[in-house]
Amino acid sequence: MNEFLTAMVGLVLVLLALGLVRVLRGPGDADRMMAAQLIGTCGIAALLLIGVIGGTSAAIDVALVLALLATFAAAAFAECARRATQPETLPETERP
Amino acid sequence: MTIVPALDLFVAGIVLIVAVWTVAARDTMSAVVGFVAYGLLLALVWVRLGAPDVALTEAAIGSGLAGALLIGAATRLRAGEPSVSTERLGGAGRVLAMTLSAVVAAAVAVVLLSLPDPAPSLASEAAANAGVTSLGNPVTNVLMAFRAMDTMLEKVVLLLALLGVWSMARDHAWGGRPRSCRRADPEGPLVLLARVLPPVGVVLGISVLWVSADHPGGAFQGATILAAMWLLVLMAGLGDVPAAGGRRLRLVLVAGPAVFLTVGLGGLALGAAFLSYPPAWAKPVILVIEFAMVLTVATTLGLLVAGPPERSAER
Amino acid sequence: MSVVLDLITIAAVSAGVVFFLAGTVGLLRFPDTLTRLHALTKADNLGLGLVVLGLLPQVGSLRDGLKMICVWLLVLLAGATVSQLVAQAARRDGPGSDGAAP
């Protein structure tokens, strides 16, 4: 069984590497954020598989933290994009 | 089973490619996304190297908090980016930069190659004395007991970093709040996330701290998760950052180092040395320090990402 | 019994990886941002869900199993919100976004 799961880790890692191509090519920031999200999910899947293969529950803990913070970068990105398009919401900051 | 080393090599190769690309990318935002992916891959590498404590830190800091911080910075820098990217270094400057880089690379290579083999290590002594604190996790043992001085000073360094960020404030905003996040659409996804995720995150953050006595985890990792949850609430505009001049905030900020220092001085007065814990009470004392530290570190990290004050305290 | 469980694992994990493959291919091959976003959520929701489902019979303890289900639920939440947030951002600064901002 472990041989099969290890092969699956390999496949997921190859897919993760393919997802990186989209991060490199873009073209937009939104595409890059999306690719980062897919890479995150692939990484989580790889961690879960590794955790089960090795019987290490610490890998599952790491996956849990990654899953919890998976939204964090994207939320910051969306917030900054919103802020950048609506500068009038910052009355005091642009004062010289 | 030759597939496992092959996979490890594969991951190492991807890490290298992403690292080079992150440095070489022209566009700041692409470099930031590359850095987030890099943090995630590093977490994977640390798990494979059998260092889950480090992997947890990397997962929380590298692909979470640092990503948000850098995205904020990239958005701010974007306005000035076209003018910067058209600037070119002159011939002499290029030669100088290349020489400097080559010297640094050569120095690092020389140092690495001249390391003694096997490298000096205190690991065996740390493992041999693991019983004295009744903690099961050797990493927590080292951080909180054997090298407690370093850990305490790290927290002071974090505070100094926050002071550095605060000192970027303009005069009229000194002691005030960072720039506001406009309240997001109350029906929107960000607000939903900021309402649903923090309860889960707070439980996970505290549990990462709590299990660190015997399992991978720790105060810093837990604090990073808590800080991320706080920042999420701030980003959605559901709360406001406390004013930097507020007394309560400042008390929280010094609580961790203060408790640590008190325990250290108590060790000096009652026990053998600075930061020596009474053997029977080692575990509870360490837990008290860790809980005070979590509060301080989470607040400090949150404020570091939130940035320097830009609104005066009256508003 | 363990043969049946192993078969479930092999079937579910393979299916999950197929969905990951579909998501990745979509992310690489689809022509524009919003269609790529559509491909992404398949990998998040179904791919990881099936992998978790397949791994459940193999975990050593109940705690690890529960943690895995939590991972999947968190990724579901993340996938749903992130695709909304990214779509809003893409619509705002993508081509043909005139007046499309909410």
TrEMBL record, chain A:
Transmembrane segment boundaries: 6-24, 36-53, 59-78
Keyword terms of this UniProt record: Cell membrane, Membrane, Transmembrane, Transmembrane helix, Transport
Superkingdom of source: Bacteria
Signal peptide: none
GO MF, any single term: sodium:proton antiporter activity
GO CC annotation, single: plasma membrane
Keyword RNA-binding appears in the UniProt entry: no
Subcellular localization, as worded in the UniProt entry: Cell membrane
Pfam families according to UniProt: MrpF_PhaF
Keyword tRNA processing attributed: no
Topological category with respect to the lipid bilayer: Multi-pass membrane protein
Coiled-coil segments on the chain, per record: none
UniProt similarity note: Belongs to the CPA3 antiporters (TC 2.A.63) subunit F family.
PANTHER family: NA(+)/H(+) ANTIPORTER SUBUNIT F1, NA(+)_H(+) ANTIPORTER SUBUNIT F
Protein name per Swiss-Prot or TrEMBL: Multiple resistance and pH regulation protein F
Species the sequence originates in: Rhodoplanes roseus
TrEMBL record, chain B:
Membrane-spanning segments: 6-24, 31-49, 55-74, 95-115, 152-169, 190-213, 219-239, 251-275, 281-306
InterPro entries in the record: CPA3_antiporter_subunitB, MnhB, MrpA_C/MbhD
Residue ranges of domain MrpA C-terminal/MbhD in the record: 14-78
Membrane topology of this protein: Multi-pass membrane protein
Keywords: Cell membrane, Membrane, Transmembrane, Transmembrane helix
Entry keyword Transmembrane: yes
Origin superkingdom: Bacteria
Residue ranges of domain Na+/H+ antiporter MnhB subunit-related protein in the record: 191-307
Compartments reported by the entry: Cell membrane
One Pfam assignment: MnhB
Any one Gene Ontology cellular component term annotated for this protein: plasma membrane
Claim: Transmembrane is one of the keywords in the record: yes
Family membership noted in the UniProt record: Belongs to the CPA3 antiporters (TC 2.A.63) subunit B family.
PANTHER family named among the record's database cross-references: NA(+)/H(+) ANTIPORTER SUBUNIT B, NA(+)_H(+) ANTIPORTER SUBUNIT B
Protein name: Sodium:proton antiporter
Organism taxonomic ancestry: Bacteria, Pseudomonadati, Pseudomonadota, Alphaproteobacteria, Hyphomicrobiales
Automatic annotation (TrEMBL), chain C:
Keywords for this protein: Membrane, Transmembrane, Transmembrane helix
Membrane-spanning segments: 6-28, 40-60, 66-87
Superkingdom field: Bacteria
GO MF, one annotated term: sodium:proton antiporter activity
InterPro entries: PhaG_MnhG_YufB
Name of the protein in its database record: Na+/H+ antiporter subunit G
